[in-house]
């Protein structure tokens, strides 16, 4: 019997679990990011210099990158079952 069909349901359940845990961990990252933004004074544009602007931009795109990584990890777990 084909093992791909038997493990597909397990792969989907594992990927959903990884996705949910990843999205829940975003809530733990948000206070740290807000504290970091307050420490480097991202809300006051007069205090920012070239390096500060770059750090604020990198900090702002941290959460969307984290969500994309979690989503691609979950999709990778599902598609790995097709290639084995």
Could you describe the 3D structure shown?
- By secondary structure, this protein is mostly helical.
- It has one domain.
- It contains 3 helices and no strands.
- The radius of gyration is 19 Å and the shape is elongated.
- The relative contact order is 0.18.
- The model has no long low-confidence stretch (mean pLDDT 82).
Question: Short summary of the structure?
Answer:
By secondary structure, the chain is mainly α.
In percent, how helical is the residue content?
A: over 70%
State the shape.
Answer: elongated
Low-pLDDT segments, ≥5 res: none
Report the count of strand segments.
0
Oligomeric state, counting identical vs distinct chains: single chain
Compute the number of structural domains. Answer: 1
Kindly state the mean pLDDT as a whole number? 82
Enumerate how many helices there are, as a single number.
3
> How would a crystallographer describe the biggest sheet?
none
Mind sketching the topology for me?
Elements: H1 3-39, H2 50-60, H3 62-83
Keywords summarizing the entry:
mainly alpha; 84 residues; single chain; 83% helix; elongated
């Amino acid at each position: 019997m084909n093992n791909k069909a038997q493990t597909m349901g397990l792969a989907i359940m594992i990927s959903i679990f990884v996705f949910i845990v990843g999205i829940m961990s975003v809530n733990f990252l948000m206070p740290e990011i807000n504290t970091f933004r307050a420490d480097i004074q991202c809300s006051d544009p007069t205090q920012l210099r070239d390096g500060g602007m770059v750090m604020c931009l990198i900090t702002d795109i941290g959460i969307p990158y984290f969500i994309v990584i979690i989503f691609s990890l979950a999709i990778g777990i599902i598609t790995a079952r097709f290639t084995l």
